[in-house]
Amino acid sequence: MQxxxxxxxxxxxxxxxxxxxxxxxxxxKNWRVVxxxxxxxxxNKVAEQLPEQANIMVLPLDVTQYDQxxxxxxxxxxxxxxxxxxxxxxxxxxxxxxxxxxxxVFKKMIDVNYLGSVAHALAVIPEFKKAGQGHFVVxxxxxxxxxxxxxxxxxGSKHALHGFFDGLRMEEHPxxxxxxxxPGFVQTDVTANALTAxxxxxxxxxxxxxxxxxxxxxxxxxxxxxxxGKKEIAFGGFEKTGLYIKRFFxxxxxxxxxxxxxxxxxxxKKQDT
Length: 273
Hints:
The chain is α/β, with parallel strands linked by helices. The protein folds into two domains: 8-237, Rossmann fold (3-Layer(aba) Sandwich); 243-272. It contains ten helices and seven strands. The chain has a seven-stranded parallel beta sheet with strand order 3-2-1-4-5-6-7, sandwiched between helices. It is globular.
């Protein structure tokens, strides 16, 4: 078994939020950490906060530039000689009703949230197979298990991740592990960056997100699940109950959401102002 100080984790979407918190968590466990995102300046700020700079690699990328992944994978291998874990965290959300939303917004959900992770996995699978071990950690969402009004495009892209990576786990057994992570509300800027109907950012943080799980706590939950090799985890507050209602009483979930229609319609109007 390899010591933690020799292991390498590659984290996308690491310029803030859950990705940044996971980079700090793994660096604190003496892993060698590769952090990736589009915002180079923000990545460098994250890197400066991590210990043992020789064990940190800043690797800017845009996950929609799919053909770059083989080259970037080789850069990681050139520096550290191995890749033990890829945390596929890059993503974007949206807040708008289906009927009002431009098609390009839905396409971007798929391009970033789904195909970016698929392209990353395709580049790394051969290395995991060659090494005889590897671990994909996919940051999905509770919205990857059920849906809600105003988030259908985001939910659809997260559902797609489960279909793909659950299949990958079986195809690449036993040398490749997959952990699906389904957070509820976490205190990040994900809703401020969420796309509205015309593709522009919402610009504000939802109250439910502001009151969600602290991001450092989310990173600890995810990190421990990774080390334990969990196949899937879900966490959050009251919203987690939707997971069980959907599983055991699927018709009831729709009824409960529709019963509270006034609440989410009022929230939608507030977001549009």
